[in-house]
Structures are given as C-alpha cells and as structure tokens.
Amino acid sequence: MSDDIRGRPIEILLVEDNPGDVRLTIEALKEGRVSNHLSVARDGVEALAFLRREGPHAHATRPDLILLDLNLPRKDGREVLAEVKEDSSLRRIPVVVLTTSKAEEDILRTYDLHANCYITKPVDLEQFISVVRSIDDFWLSVVRLPSVE
Hints:
The chain is α/β, with parallel strands linked by helices. The chain has five helices and five strands, in the order E-H-E-H-E-H-E-H-E-H.
C-alpha cells in the first residue's frame, strides 16, 4: 500500500442498486478493516456525479477503489466503466466489477473496457460475505493503489 494511503481511511465507492447487496457489502467490510470508508451510489448517473464531484457530491472524496455492479438503472455499469476509463482524471482508480452476470460476453466486454477484475456475486450469503472480504484483503492490503491526485 502506498505511503499516501497508509494511515488514512481507504475510500471505496460501491455502485449498487440492490439494497440487500449494499447492506451485505457494508457488513462484510465492517468486519474486516476498520479503516474503510464506504460511499454508495445507487445508479450509474449518481456514480459518475460522485466521481466527477458534481451537484450534491461536490465535496466527495475521490475513491481508492470502485466496486461496480453492471446492471444499474439510468446508466448501466458498462457505460460507467467506459466513462471512468476514458477520463484521464479517473482512469487509474481500480474498478472491481461485482455482478450477478456469469455471461462470457459481459466478462469479455468489461475487460475490454479495462476493468481491473470481474467477480460474479455468489447467491449464498456466507459466500457473498467471503468474496467481499477477499476483495478487501486483496485490494486494500496486498495491492499497491495509486495515490490520490
């Protein structure tokens, strides 16, 4: 982990419209590191406003990691991913696609759009919590994240 990130909360943006998955993700992250700060965007339009610090998100903190569902209202996750990776001020933020889709087409398309990884959400509660914890362990403990610009 970079020196700029160590010692401050890790900022995570969860882009998820399913309230149950939001709740489970929050619970799984709470039981892991105590130094995470999670913000939630409930659709693709809100996610991009948050990332670009527009409107009510003018004072939003830039996330160190984005957890992105693909099937979102108003603007789907593929469009959000494409816009994030095309934006020079956002493209270095790692994007973990966390979705129910197992479709090979979705997997290929998100990697073509430069997702950092693709994870299919397990339907089993314990497995879901385990997956979120493993994301936390890997991306926030093992990986060296870029410092905030």
